[in-house]
Design a protein that fits this description.
Length: 86
């Protein structure tokens, strides 16, 4: 917990803050890509969650995110880049 002025506020890296502030990122394509073509692939969703920024059509992650993967098979054609851990 950090004090800003006279009001205690949770720091963004505080576990309580992270649990209460998270994004749900929905994958909407089975393509394995990291591009700007208007969809949200699993690879792009992982990137958005890791960097807390929007990637293609995936919204920015916030803290401890949830990636919603639709039913079906998601295949990653190549390994995740360093720093793209799941």
């Amino acid at each position: 917990m950090t004090i800003y002025g006279s009001t205690p506020q949770a720091h963004p890296r505080d576990g309580v803050w992270a649990r209460n502030h998270a994004a749900t990122i929905t994958v909407n394509t089975t393509d394995d890509e990291l591009s700007t073509d208007g969809d949200c692939s699993l690879r792009e969703a992982i990137q958005a969650a890791n960097v807390d920024a929007a990637v293609d059509a995936c919204p920015a992650g916030i803290g401890s995110d949830t990636i919603d993967v639709p039913a079906g098979i998601q295949v990653l054609d190549r390994p995740l880049d360093r720093g793209q851990a799941v």
